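Researcher: Here's a chain I'd like modeled. Treat it as a single chain, no partners, no ligands.
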Amino acid sequence: YDNFAKNSDILLKMVGAEAGDLFVSGENMDAVGEQLEDWAENELVLYFANATLKLEGKEIETSVTCDVWKEPDLVKNEMIIDGRLPKYGNEIVLTNNIAKELEVEVGDTIYVTGQKERMDFLVCGIDQKINNMGLKALLSYEGLERLNGKAETAILYVYTKENVVFDDISKKITDEFSGASVTDSEKTIQSTMNGVIVAMAT
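Model: Modeled as a single isolated chain. Structure tokens:
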């Protein structure tokens, strides 16, 4: 408890919660993200989608929620315990709990079904998450496009430069992009972390 609950960075990685300084949702997030990348206030923009997939191991199958990142190697709150993040469109990361359930490890092949046909994926990494009961997977956009034909960004996680004020950047985004919703990551993450810390302390 002392090592994890009092260190927010480690705790965020355990939960598997990307933070950023703010996150943006709404329509046409891919186009919005491309513009936000050019703004002087922003340091990094991460593109996120999700999907429900059916995974098949050697003799067992299960359905999971899959986190999907345009550039997985840029994600900050990811706790890989074996292997690495996906580099190619035929690779997938499983949580430790899912890998155990499917009886697979790094280097094994599983079958994944999305909206289209069933395809084989190489397990390139095992990670650790405690959200969603630790039952998750992770793909790159290239991997989801291979399965479903497209990957559509749902949320942009934006890391701003030092001394950028949330209220100022939030107003600039909503003024520039009609219908965009901007959330202060610090407040949302703190609320989530408080719940996790209470659970860990009991």
